[in-house]
Structure formats: C-alpha cells, structure tokens
Amino acid sequence: MMNIKAAGNLSYYSFGLLEPWPELTYAAFTRHGGVSAHPYDTLNMSYTVQDDPERVKVNRERAIRAVGWDPECVVSARQVHGRQVVAVSRAMVGGPDLPETDALVTNEPGVLLLLKFADCVPIVLWDPKRRVVGLVHAGWRGTVLETPAAALELMRQRYGCHPSSVLAGIGPSIGPCCYEVGTEVVAAASTLFAGTTVIQQVDGSHRMDLWGANAETLMRAGVAEENIAVAGVCTRCHHDQFFSHRAAKGIAGRFGVVAGIRDG
Q: What are the structural domain ranges in the chain?
C-alpha cells in the first residue's frame, strides 16, 4: 500500500493510491535523518517534547526541503486529541503552530500541512475533483470523536467536496497487534464501532484496531471502501523506523507527516 522513498539521508513513505496526481505532495517521514539527540533521535518534528527548539527547526527544514518545498510554506498545529478542524489559507503560512487543532484542510496551492505523530493515526484526505487536501491526527480520543468525519464535513461545507470523490490514506501508527487499551477506551469504542474493532485477548486484556475504526468512520461518512488505503505499518513494532510513545515508555520524539498541493 505504501512506497518508501529516499532524499539524501532522509526517507519517507507515500501511498501508491495518491501517486497519479503529481501536484499532490504526501510524505510520512521516518525518525531518521535529523539532528536531534537521544531520546529524540534524530528527525523529531515537534516543539512540544523536551527537544532543543533549534534542532526541531532544522529537522523541519530538512524534511520539508527533502520533498521539494520551501519551509516558509508550512502550516502546522498543536494537537490536543480533539475534533477541531481548521481551513488553512496561504495567509497563515510561516506562523506559529495553530492552537488546539487536530485536522487541517486546504484547497490553496503552495500550502504544506504538517502534523506530528508517535503512535497516533495520520490520515490524509484528497479530493482530486475539487483539488482539496486534508490531514488528520487521530489517537483513540480523536478516533472515537470521529475527527476524520469532521474534516470531511468541513471539506464539504467549505469547498463543495463530496466524500464519494475523496481518497483516504491511513498511515503508519500503532497497530492492533500492540495497542492494548483499558476499560475507558473499550467502553467508548464498543458503542461506536464494529465488534472487531476491540479485540479481547486470552488473558482478558483488550486491544484496539485504530486502523479499522478510522476506516469505518470514513466509510460511514461516505468514502468508498476501495478509496481507502491502510499502510498496515505498526509504529511500535517498527520503532526503529518511527517514533513510538508506547515503545519509548512516554519519552519520544514525533515523526512528521505532510500534505499539500504544489503551485503550478
């Protein structure tokens, strides 16, 4: 479902589903190729962990240039595991991270959306008919809040998108193989999603399938099943490639995911 690409000593993943549109940039970066020291080694893209902000700035610039963009074109957000979606314009580029926002959408070329992850689910949305792109951050809270559906709704209201035209990619994140959850999550998820979303283990513990839950949300919102790609890459299993909050016991950097429409 995903292809890995290299740019110097950086590498990133992209969805084959999205590659027929050369005007669209999408990249889920690995944790390698930056300048941050342990435990944020090396391509940490978040200012909200205890990393040196100057190193984070260098990391962001390296990653953004690696996909052929100017770092001044970026709009990012301070994610809070909520449902807030912001429609982004070119007037917003180069500013500080937007407060309390977990999804970004835009139809304006020359704007590169950036969100950060370390087990939560990155979801890219692309409407090739209306030329609108969205990027969503969904941990378990964002998943049960149906944040991807909120992003689709703003795309419909603001830009006239129809979900049946939207392509969606569910990127690298913690998988059902590793995502053990407690009773609060089990109760919240069980009321919303199919019975296979929360899996009871032999020992009585539970694991949650965030990939399946978010795919279910997208389909309920009108995205066709055949238009949804799931990376199937677990960040905890592959914490050598991606930052993982669980694998690092809570002290980890954040890998970046970007999406945007090129000028021209």
A: 2-174+227-261
